[in-house]
Specification:
- With 171 residues, the chain is mainly α.
- The protein has two domains: 82 residues; 78 residues, no CATH class.
- The protein is built from seven helices and no strands.
- The protein is elongated.
Length: 171
């Protein structure tokens, strides 16, 4: 009788160890899949830097966010992609502020050429985008997108100040 109990205990331990090993292997497979998703998102994010148009950049932001959201199907996603939430927030912010950045870049080109009226029109278009989309300075901070050639972070106050210097009288 004792012999049967010992055999059952040994068999039970073997089954438990086998299940534990299977669970560990499954967790490792899920982590590898999450890593694959992260690399795919990274490839899309790198395209954001190389494409020229705002719409193409916005599309790549959206695609990268969608890919990153696939990782949330796995319970270990925060272990593998530690800054997942920050990445998704930044991509969303970039997508939101891109039209404004586009207008500001155009304004800088007009400023360089000395075309004050055209510069003012572009900056007013930027303010319109900011107002209609409900953007805040925080959106620009999170996006960390700098207009080409300026090296400075966009602020709503900065745009308004430049408009006023160009003769705009806010209502």
């Amino acid at each position: 009788m004792e012999y049967i109990v010992i055999i059952l205990i040994v068999v039970g331990l073997a089954v438990w160890a086998s299940r534990a090993k299977q669970k560990k292997e499954e967790a490792e497979r899920r982590k590898a899949e999450i890593l694959r998703i992260a690399y795919k998102a990274q490839d899309i994010v790198e395209k954001i830097q190389t494409v020229k148009t705002s719409s193409a950049k916005a599309n790549n932001c959206r695609k990268a966010r969608e890919v990153l959201m696939q990782a949330t199907a796995y319970p270990e996603y925060r272990e593998v992609i530690k800054n997942h939430g920050e990445l998704v927030d930044r991509l969303e912010a970039i997508e939101k502020v891109l039209p404004v950045v586009n207008h500001v870049e155009k304004a800088y080109k007009h400023q360089f050429k000395g075309k004050d009226k055209s510069e003012l029109n572009c900056l007013q278009d930027a303010l319109y985008e900011i107002q209609t989309k409900g953007l805040s300075n925080r959106d620009f901070e999170v996006a960390m997108v700098f207009p080409e050639g300026t090296g400075e972070l966009i602020t709503i106050e900065g745009i308004k100040d430049r408009c006023i210097r160009l003769g705009w009288e806010p209502a």
